[in-house]
Amino acid sequence: SGFAHRAMRQTLLLVVVAWGEPLKAGTPAMKLLQCDACQSVINGLRDDVKYLIQAESYWKTSDLVGRIGASCQDPSLPSGAMEEACAAFLGDHHKALQEEIRGRLDPKSDLFEEELVPREMCLEFGVCKPDSKTIGQMVDMSDRRDKDLKEEQKLKEKWAKRKKNTAADTASDSDEEEEEE
User: Fold this and answer.
1) pLDDT tens digit string along 161-181?
2) Could you tell me if 79 and 139 are in contact, meaning their C-beta atoms sit under 8 angstroms apart?
């Protein structure tokens, strides 16, 4: 459920922060969080840009700057270290985001009306690596693994029960054969 994933993400962030000192730029934990923040920010902007394209509208520069700046205030982003990572991401990539969005809203641009694709853009910005996974993806994989292990355990128990029943049936069949002789 959404609540469970948010709780897990916040727990993971607390663990990441608790392992050491406050997050510093360039650390593996900060890079992981910035990749997550990048995808979250662009995902939110994608919906707004899509709406503007459909409405044949655009943002004034001040509105665009304000909208990008407000991206880290999204309630779906965990507070604390994730906010720091988001602010660091925007500090480094605010102008690039502006250019990408302007291109999607400018009929003269090659990017006009193209959708913002979070993963691709975060790779282009160098914030995410091709093999990197977001915290959400890691939580999902962990949940899937847990579910698979539980299902596997149920199957093993079911087969063990069947095997036991089959062995008991075979033993009673051989007892009956001995009695008949």
Assistant:
1) 887 777 766 666 655 555 555
2) no
